[in-house]
Amino acid sequence: MTNPKQDTDLLPGNQAGRPRSSGEAEGAGRGGGTEPDADLALVLRVQAGDVSAFGELIDRHQRAIYGIVSRMVTSRDEADDLVQDIFVSAYRAIGSFRREAKLSTWLHTIAVNMTLKRLKKMKRQNMLSIDDPAFGLASTIRAEDDPSPDESLQQRERNDMVRRAIDTLPDKQRIVVVMHYFEQRPCDEIAAILKCSVGTVWSRLHYACRRLRGELRLLQQGL
Amino acid sequence: MRCTHFRKRIMPYIEGTLPERLQKLTEEHIAACESCARELAELTQTVHALRQAEYPAMEPALDLRSRIMARLAREPVRRPWFVGRRQAYSGAAVGLLVFAIALAAVWPYLFQVRRPSQSRMPSNVQQPAKGPAAAPKPPPSTKAEPYTVIADGHARDDVDVLSKKLGAAVPRTGASPERFRRIEAPRRTVAPGTPLKNRPGTAPARVSPMPAHKESADRTKPAGAKAVAQATAGIDEAGIEEIPKAEMEGSPTKPHVNGKGGKVGYGGVAEEAGPRPRRAPESRPSGPAGPPPAPGALESAWLERRGTASSEDLSVEAQKQHNLELVQTYERKAKESPNSQVVLEGLLNAYNQAGQPRDEYMTANQLVRLDPKSATYWFAQAQAAERAKMPRTAAASYRQAIGLKIAQPYFRVAKRRLQALEAERGTRP
With an 8 Å Cβ cutoff, is A95 touching chain B? Predict the structure, then answer.
């Protein structure tokens, strides 16, 4: 399993080829001053009817979007479907992109809204996936997907505990926790994505941490 | 700082993003408040644990982009509604403008009331009032104004229809435009305000006496004896005048034959109603009694009255000859099939065009006897009776038509004519 903080994958469009963390990876427009310009140029090409330019935008932002979605849903198939839907929706709505926000923020807004909507729909339908973490299958699949098989048993157990604790959170708190602590998004950007105030983001984080306090106590004791 | 304020700032304090002044105030509160200090310690441990924990994301599938692009290939290109459509929207705006101008130009004509002559209404019938604003009355003038009695379109349409129905049996003279011009020639002049009975040519109004909406389904329906009796009783109660015997004999047409082979007679209803005091022959407006004139005699007499025949007179004469031939044709048809409502309606129109109101009335009466529940026939009888100067019969027939709920605008016309006739009767000495 790759540690997002030590992720050295080269993102598409990373011209300098420097190692980037996962948190930097999804923020393709968040880095230097040239990346938003590159996004903007691609957006203009897409708005002019160039579909291939949207392919480049997918390459630049799919990892960031997938990072959030895959942590919110419980299976790879659902994540794939949802990410496809997110990009198709973004393509449909790209004519309304007005450069008031960065493209990455705009895309994340679409992703978060669609993810929350999908989760709500799944809960309403009372769907119980075989990949539910409660059954342990998800962690098995994730372990199979894990690119680092040398991970110790203790590390896997600790990660499973964190996942289970986070999965118990309400969706709105969970997505804030995921974006802030695992995607390294600052609170003001999360507020821009969620279209709420920074105080609301801090408040959700506070309540989430209070909920997680009991769940993670065992983890802390183990540490 | 209070505890509530501290709890609002505890997360930024742990993250280290508080401004220096607020951070100092928070530290002072922590030093003073034991519960808040404990809360801070627990949350700091939780945040630390979260930061140390790993929640790795799954890697996107390698073919994610190709799958998305495949879906997008099926998507139509979406652009803002205004992009690349400036010409289309400009054209639409220009079209709307032109349409608005055209609509404003034709607006006054959209709500113009159709005239009765356009809707096959008898033109000699006084039209209902259209409100105070509409149709202002012409200023009174001592000069006589032309009073057009003939509705040309009716005669033309009826002849055409009858020609089709009778297999080109209806003769017509001259070319159509010339004929129509000739029809308009004999205009009668009457001063405005002249009573209907004093108007020359009011009775022989040459229009189709049948309202246009007569149901064709009723035409071959024979009437029962009971219905005829009811109709007869209704007329008798209303007080229909009897037609003088001399008038009947002087008419150019012979009595009609009913379905049983017996004579119905001109008196029709009146004969069955029993003897009544007959009107003096001199009161008849159509001239002295005598044998039926030979074909062409009427034209000759008319030409004698008119003096020398001009080209206009000749055209009128041709028209009269045509009308007479039409009457003869329909009389022959009526003898062959005396109960055919189609033939009788044609005969009614022929009498109307030929200016024979008495015969027209008798034919209408036959139609009423055949179908006493037809408001249209009652209306036609009322019109013919009015033209034949039988105001009581006309009033009774109008009442029957109104009672049978004749369709508009004939209902309105019937009511107005009935009122006029009753008023005229009330002023009569």
Answer: yes
